[in-house]
Amino acid sequence: MDHEVDIDLNLEPILHQYRTLGYARVGRILNESDLAALRDRANQIMLGKISYPGLFFQADTETGRYEDLTYKKGYVGPGLNYRKIEKLEKDPLYCALINHPVFERIARAWIAGDIVIYRSVLFNKPAHGGTVLPWHQDGGSYWGLNQNPTLQIWTAIDDADVESGCLEVIPGSHINGLATPLGGVIPDHVLKTRNIEAEKVLVPAKAGDVILVHNHLWHGSGLNHTNKPRRGLTTCYMSADTRCQRTKRAPRTFFPVFR
What we know:
The chain is α+β, with helices and mostly antiparallel strands. The chain has a single domain (12-62, 70-256), classed as Sandwich (Jelly Rolls). The protein has helices at residues 12-21, 32-46, 92-98, 101-110, 188-191, 196-199; strands at 23-28, 56-59, 82-86, 115-125, 133-137, 151-156, 167-169, 184-185, 201-203, 209-213, 219-221, 230-239, 255-256. The strands form 2 sheets. Strands 1, 2, 3, 4, 6, 10, 12 and 13 form an 8-stranded antiparallel beta sheet that branches. A 5-stranded antiparallel beta sheet has the order 8-5-11-7-9, with no helix packed on it.
């Protein structure tokens, strides 16, 4: 993949903002040719024209309500109305993005030693649709790890503006850690401890832009009101020392990167 930003860019101000606010813009790393290939690959996977063993799919809702999502159904047939696809490290094009040299510099500046990914997910909001993603954090006992990851790198595959459901954040909300031990969606009684409407910041992005999102940052997104899909790849990087603690099934193993 070509590199739109300087691979040797100064990370100090970016990581300072990340520590302080819980999110930070990196810049545009993909050109139009790269983006077109990634979009086409996403469509081919959703339409069943390309398949990899072990890919995880979640269909989107028809209502836009998070409460109406269904689980454990996986791939339900060809179509573009999938909310997310996980394990995209299995695909060469997406694996190359996950291992982007700028991402490697950021991850090595943040994480000591060898690095793996917890997950790499394409989040998709289909044209004139999608589902509202409520305020949440990415971590907690639900993730089943012995230590919480703190680095996620989000890449816009399409334009993600206000109309298409851009990222929304509460700056600095990561500082106090997890709102609940379980993690995930933030309960109403916790949300009421902050003035959400006054504090929230919209973070629109152009296709190819990269944004760092701390796992503990309160973040969410709205519906896509445009006639184009809104897709973004989120990859969570963590120390290779991290262990899966689940016991009902075999513990997860994690994909190594930057080798």
